[in-house]
Amino acid sequence: MLALAGYPLGFEFLFLDPATDACASSLGEQIRADYSDEKALAEFCGRVDVATYEFENVPVASAEFVAARVPLRPHPPALLAGQDRISEKKLFERLGIAVPPYAAVSSRNDLIAAVEQLGLPLILKTRRLGYDGKGQARIRQIADIEIAWKQLGEHPLIAEALVPFEREVSCIGVRGIDGQLAFYPLIENVHRNGILHTSRPVLDDPLHEPATHSVKAVMEHVGYVGVMAFEFFVADGRLLGNEIAPRVHNSGHWTIEGAQTSQFENHLRAISGLPLGSTALRGNSLMVNFIGDTQSLGTLAAKRNLHIHLYGKTPKPLRKIGHATLLAESAAELGELEKLLFA
Fold it and tell me: How many Å apart are CA 339 and CA 327, to the nearest integer?
């Protein structure tokens, strides 16, 4: 989607990806190699003017190798900031951003202590990697402690109190090389089985301003350039920082049709030094992910005002393989179309 946004701007793309079925390979040449392959990284650097990433688990050492040879935006400290959940939470706290209660866990005794400290229920997560519900275990009762430890205990972990939240929201911002900032409206997200199901931008949300304040604080602290997403829980009407994504984000895919400038185009504008585009809405929109298969595609394709994006990924359970964005002129019309969408 970055490439699709960039070709109208006259950009050309080279992709480095270890996957044999990389989605972007049909949109430009792919160097198929591991992220730690320095020979491949050197070839990559020799053929690009500026580099970026859309996957936050790129090894920092690889990012530093690239950054030493070609402009890499966002730069390695920004990548590092969100790779370890404990470091991420501590960063938020230093910047005055509230977070749910948490504890580091490196042993079974630490886990027992975390249960005593945080209470039940709680969620146990790997500190690194893990997304879309992977690398997580819920502990609802004492009997679940041993099950969770057997499932995840070989990794450094974080225990987090389960927050009785009213909403899950994300704030997507973009920062240019010159420090210019722009933000999309706050986005309400609904997850199923730990995987993002729907995202809806909300105009005039009272939490938009404090959310943008948090995103700005993190961006300026790490000298960020590009698009960043910040996910929050809303509990008792206030924001609790969950995690950042130093990249374009699934909860912003609606911006392709729903905003004047998509998050993908704005990321490219930012990293290449172009002025940022408008983040204003084109109307009311709702994004829904295709998870696992496209069985509903035929029905969805018949809906009016619906834009379908398939990623070229092989369908398999719990895998995001595409999305659709529904547009409407009013919130009431969007609500009626949403009912039809999930009928």
Answer: 13
Q: Are strands 195-201 and 187-192 parallel, antiparallel or unpaired?
A: antiparallel
CATH no. of 2-81: 3.40.50.20
| CA 186/CA 83 separation, integer angstroms | 24
Over the range 260-282, which residues count as b (16 or more CB within 10 Å of their CB) and which as e?
A: ebbbbbbbbbbbbeeebbebebe
pLDDT in tens, 28-53: 999 999 999 999 999 999 999 999 99
Cβ-defined contacts of 290-293 (< 8 Å, 24+): 290/320, 290/321, 290/322, 290/323, 290/324, 291/192, 291/195, 291/197, 291/318, 291/319, 291/320, 291/321, 292/316, 292/317, 292/318, 292/319, 292/321, 293/321
> CA angle at residue 56 from 104 to 110, to 5 degrees?
10
Kindly tell me if the per-residue pLDDT of 191 is higher than 80. Answer: yes
Give burial (CB, 10 Å; 0-12/13-18/19+) of 164.
exposed
Question: Left if phi > 0, otherwise alpha if psi is -120 to 50, otherwise beta: which for 299?
Answer: alpha
- CATH class of the region 101-161: alpha beta
Q: What is the pTM of this model?
A: 0.94
- Per-residue pLDDT band for 300 (boundaries 50, 70, 90) equals low
167-341 belongs to which homologous superfamily?
ATP-grasp fold, B domain (3.30.470.20)
Identify residue 304 by its one-letter amino acid code.
R
Provide the residue type at 249 as one letter: H
